[in-house]
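stage 2 :: seqdesign
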C-alpha cells in the first residue's frame, strides 16, 4: 500500500505527536514525515495529510490523489497551493463545533455580564454594581452559518439570547432567525448588541467589517472575532472603539500572528486580546476523522466533500 505523507512546517517533535496519533487511528497505514521519505516513497504517495505545508513539498509529491488538511480553515492552503492543487479536504470535526460554540457562549456572557467594565473598575478600585441585563434582552448576530456558526447559534439560543444568523445565501436553521445578502447583513448589524464573526476568509469577506459597517452597528454594541484577522479593517475598528460607536471587541485572530508587541490592541482598554484559542484542535478527534476519510477512500474511492477553490472553502 502506498505510504501517506505527513507534510507540515512544524518542528520534528510536533510532527511526531501528530504522526503518532494518526498511526494509532490508522494502524494499517504507513504515515511518514515528508522529511523522512525516500524518493521512491514520494513518488508512490497518493495522500498527504497536511498542517500548514510548504507548497514545494506538496509539489514534490507528483502522484497525490488528494490532500487532507488538519485544520478547518484552509484559506492559506488554497492561496499557496493554487488552482492546480490536488483535491483539498478540510477538517470537519463535530468536536471543533462544540468547542467553538462553547467559546462563543462564554465570551458572549463576558460581554452580557459587563466583565470589561468590572475589569476597569477593579483597576481603579471602584466598588460598584452595574445594572444586570438578561440574555433575553440582548441580540447576538452571527456572521456565518456554517458548521461553527450553526452550532453557536443553537448554543446561544438555548442560553436565552435572541439570535440572528447571517450568511451570503439564505439558510434555514430551526428556531433561529436568518438573513442573507448585503441587506440582511445591514439589518443584522443594526439590531445586534453583540456581533460574532465566524466566516471563512475569502476575497469576498476580506475587509467585510469596515468603517461603513461599524457605523451601521448599534451604538455601544460589541464585537467578537473568532474567524480570521483580515476580515476586520484594523484602523476602522480602532476608530469605532475610540469614538464610542463600539463598546468592546474580543479578538482571537489578527492579521499578523503572534500579535506584534507594537500593536495598539495590546493596551487598548476596550479590547480583549486572546492568543487564537477559541477553537483548539483536538488531536485525537481529528485523527479519528482523518482516519475514517482515508479508510473510506481506500475501500471505495469516495472522497469526503472537497474545498471549492473558487470560493476558498
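stage 2 :: out
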Amino acid at each position: 500500500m502506498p505510504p501517506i505523507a505527513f507534510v507540515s512546517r512544524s518542528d520534528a517533535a510536533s510532527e511526531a505527536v501528530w504522526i503518532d496519533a494518526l498511526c494509532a487511528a490508522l494502524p494499517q497505514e504507513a504515515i511518514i514525515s515528508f522529511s523522512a521519505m525516500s524518493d521512491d516513497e514520494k513518488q508512490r504517495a497518493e495522500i498527504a495529510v497536511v498542517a500548514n505545508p510548504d507548497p514545494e513539498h506538496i509539489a514534490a509529491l507528483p502522484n497525490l490523489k488528494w490532500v487532507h488538511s488538519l485544520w478547518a480553515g484552509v484559506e492559506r492552503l488554497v492561496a499557496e497551493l493554487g488552482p492546480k492543487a490536488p483535491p483539498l479536504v478540510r477538517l470537519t470535526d463535530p468536536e471543533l463545533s462544540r468547542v467553538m460554540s462553547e467559546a462563543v457562549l462564554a465570551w458572549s456572557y463576558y460581554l452580557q455580564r459587563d466583565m470589561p467594565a468590572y475589569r476597569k473598575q477593579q483597576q481603579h478600585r471602584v466598588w460598584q454594581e452595574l445594572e444586570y441585563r438578561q440574555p433575553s434582552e440582548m441580540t447576538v448576530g452571527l456572521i456565518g452559518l456554517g458548521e461553527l456558526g450553526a452550532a453557536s447559534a443553537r448554543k446561544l439560543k438555548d442560553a436565552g439570547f435572541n439570535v440572528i444568523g447571517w450568511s451570503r445565501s439564505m439558510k434555514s436553521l430551526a428556531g433561529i432567525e436568518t438573513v442573507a445578502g448585503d441587506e440582511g447583513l445591514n439589518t443584522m448589524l443594526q439590531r445586534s448588541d453583540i456581533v460574532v464573526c465566524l466566516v471563512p476568509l475569502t476575497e469576498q469577506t476580506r475587509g467585510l467589517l469596515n468603517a461603513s459597517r461599524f457605523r451601521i452597528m448599534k451604538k455601544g454594541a460589541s464585537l467578537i472575532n473568532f474567524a480570521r484577522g483580515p476580515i476586520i479593517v484594523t484602523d476602522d475598528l480602532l476608530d469605532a472603539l475610540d469614538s464610542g460607536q463600539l463598546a468592546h471587541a474580543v479578538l482571537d485572530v489578527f492579521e499578523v500572528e503572534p500579535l506584534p508587541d507594537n500593536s495598539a490592541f495590546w493596551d487598548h482598554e476596550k479590547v480583549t486580546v486572546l492568543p487564537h484559542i477559541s477553537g483548539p484542535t483536538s488531536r485525537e478527534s481529528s485523527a479519528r476523522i482523518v482516519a475514517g476519510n482515508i479508510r473510506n477512500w481506500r475501500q471505495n474511492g469516495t472522497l469526503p466533500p472537497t474545498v471549492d477553490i473558487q470560493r476558498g472553502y
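stage 3 :: structure notes
- The mean pLDDT is 96.
- The longest helix spans residues 94-112.
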